[in-house]
Structures are given as C-alpha cells and as structure tokens.
Amino acid sequence: MKKVKAGLFTATVLGLAMTLTTAYAAEYKASIKEGPLKIVNLNDLESQVKANMDKGAFGYIRGGAEDEKNMRDNTASFDRKYIMPRVMQGIELKDINITTSFLGIPLDTPVIQAPMAAQGLAHRDGEIATAKGMAKAGSIFTLSTYGNKTIEEVAAVSDGHPFFFQLYMSKNDAFNEFTLKRAKESGAKAIILTVDSPVGGWREDDLRNNFQFPLGFANLELFAKQNNDGAKTGKGAGISEIYAQAKQAFTPSDIQYVKKMSGLPVIVKGIQSPEDADRVIEAGADAIWVSNHGGRQLDSGPASFDVLPAIAKTVNKRVPVVFDSGVRRGSHVFKALASGADIVAVGRPVLYGLNLGGAQGVNSVIQQLNKELRINMMLGGAKDINAVKQTRLYTDSDLQ
Ligand code: FNR
C-alpha cells in the first residue's frame, strides 16, 4: 500500500487546523457542567444551549443546509402519521419493555447516539463524556472520524460498553487503513461508513459566523504524528478545507474495502432511496442507516421519516435498519420503529445534553426519550419493541 505523507494529508484536509490543540482547548471556553438534567422535552434544550454557547459552535451544531427546510421537515414529518390510541390492553407501565438488540448487541433502549464531529465544542470532555453517558444509558456510543478524542481514549472509558467508529473515508488509503485498524484493535463493534457527505452542504450559519474549528481532530492528528510529519501550526480550517481531502467518488466497492480493512460489520450511513439501499446491501453492507444527516446536506431532499417505509420494504429484513434525522420525541422513536427501523439514532439533542450536563446530561437526554417512548407504548397498546414494530400507523387519508 502506498504511504502518503501525513503532512500532506493534514495540511490539505485541514489546512492549518491541526495543531496547538492544547493551547486552543484552553482558549476555547467549552462547558464544564456536570449533572443530570431536568427535562420537560428535548426541544427546550436548544434555547438553553444557545444562551451559553460560543456563537460559532452553536451555529455549527444547530444548523442545517441552505434554507433549513429539510431540517425542519425531518421533525415535522412525524406529525403526518398517527399512533392509534388503544385501550383495555391489560398492560401496566412497569411492564413496558424497551430493551432490544442490534447486530447481536443487547441494549437497554432502542435509542443510540448518531456520530457527530467535534464534541469538544459542546463540553470540555467531548466524546469521553458522551461515551460515558451512552454507556450509562445502556446504549451505543458512536465516534466520528472528526472527533476531538482518539479511538483509544473512547475505548478506555467505554469499559466494555459497545461503541462504533464512523469513518469519513479519505482519498489517502494509508489514513483509512491506519484508522480502521485502530478501531478494530480498540474494540469497536462496527464501522459506520458515511457516504452522504462527499461535499458539505451549504450551511449558512457557518459562513456568517466565519466558523473555524477551534480544537484539533484527534484521530487525524494521531495519523500525522505517527507518520512522522508532525502537525502544522495555526488555527482552524474552514469546513470546506476539511472536506477537501475526503473521498468524494464513493462506489459500492468501498464497502468491501472497509469490511476487509476493519474485519468488522459495516453500516452504510446516509441512505435515502430504496435503490441505494438495494445497491449497498448487494455490495455487502451489514446494515443500512437511513439518514439525511439531520438536514445538513441536501436541503431539497425529502424528510428522512418520509422515505423510511419504502426503504424498509425494499430491504425486506435482509439487514437491520438504523434511522435518524429529526427525532426529538419518544413518539418519533415509536413511529420510526413502526415504519421499519430496527434502531433509532439521535443527533443534536445529545450534544445539547452534553453541553448542559456532561455525561449525565447525555444520559438524561436518552432517559427523556425512553420515558416518552414508554408512555406512547402504553397508550398505543405496544408492550415491547417487537409490538411497536408491528404497530400500524395511520395517515389522514386512512381516517377519511
Ligand atoms: C453530524 N452528523 C455527522 N454524521 C456523520 O456520519 N459523521 C459526523 O462526523 C457527523 N457530524 C455531525 C456534527 C453535528 C454537529 C451534527 C448535528 C450532525 C450527522 C449525524 O450523525 C446525524 O445524522 C444527524 O445529526 C441526525 O439528525 P438530528 O438528530 O440531529 O436531527
């Protein structure tokens, strides 16, 4: 395998972003809050975070692409389906069972955390705190390639709890192989191969705020260091520079490459059409992840929830289906499961919980979804996750 010099990769991908991490970490005022959160609903968290967070960081986390129509529609689309109230089911709330499993991993909840970059923006402990919070919730933590912590640091605090590694492939195979090998050796249970971001969506808050990542991307830095080129100095690179060296011309053959390099199951993330679901399964994907990146990519695309039923039909249980984008309520989790998802991931609210309460804040966010889910299951007559999956949802036209 041809080795590409780390410096070339670092400098090209991240411009001058990668160094002085410690100095900038000290300079950048991330939250140090710790403690459980009193949550009425997850929507409330956004304004609480906005009041305290650096403007650029908040814009990067909250924002979507272009007019943010897709981002809004992701959540609004759940309102277009109804859960029929069911009565006299002989169920007690304490008997509602939300445990499940995914890729053979037993879970206390059907809610996992979506991979998100640069969690040091939200909290000083970044991904370490999120991993601890997700472990406490009995669920799965997923580490982004662009995390502020290394795979090894996350593995160390996961304490046997399952975590996945999300790969943004580079055009530099040396980086891909180095990173996948570390993920496998550190105990990651699967690789999430994100394929919906060959370029970044047009995110206007980042442009208005002239947002620069203030902290280093730990896994890229490690690669640079181990390839003996040292990190370059300077502050953050623009988002467009980060994407510059990322692989753009994905093909289904990348799935086999990642499987071979990692020896782990590969979940292909960013599927929105039945045709693509079929192609990636045919190419060997072990699971698919239905997502439009939380409305951060193609603003003209449909709501992720709207495309889920047709994709699930095409998948026809050949592989498990993960769903994300717009999930803010237990009812949304219920509806996604009833529409063909096997597991549901949540993005931004986890970072808001992280910002407001560290590891415990992350756990509080998952517990809030769990609480709402249990109530919806009780009132919708579904005693466990299998029953939720078999529940029929209704549309306006069904009710005519
Ligand atoms: C993301 N997302 C993401 N996805 C991915 O595969 N790798 C990544 O590094 C990131 N980074 C990232 C950063 C931030 C701040 C956000 C908000 C999102 C997308 C993420 O995994 C998920 O698809 C969406 O966040 C789901 O939508 P909601 O729940 O935020 O609406």
From TrEMBL:
FMN binds at residues 115-117, 144, 166, 194, 269, 291, 324-328, 347-348. Residues 34-398 form the FMN hydroxy acid dehydrogenase domain. GO terms for molecular function: FMN binding; oxidoreductase activity, acting on CH-OH group of donors. InterPro entries: Aldolase_TIM, Alpha-hydoxy_acid_DH_FMN, FMN-dep_DH, FMN_HAD, FMN_hydac_DH_AS. Residues 1-25 form the signal peptide. Its cofactor is FMN. Keywords: Flavoprotein, FMN, Oxidoreductase, Signal. SUPFAM superfamilies: FMN-linked oxidoreductases. Pfam families: FMN_dh. Glyoxylate binds at Y60, Y168, R203, H293, R296. The active site is at H293. The keyword Oxidoreductase applies. The keyword Phosphoprotein does not apply. Belongs to the FMN-dependent alpha-hydroxy acid dehydrogenase family. This is Lactate oxidase. It comes from Morganella psychrotolerans. The lineage of its organism: Bacteria, Pseudomonadati, Pseudomonadota, Gammaproteobacteria, Enterobacterales.
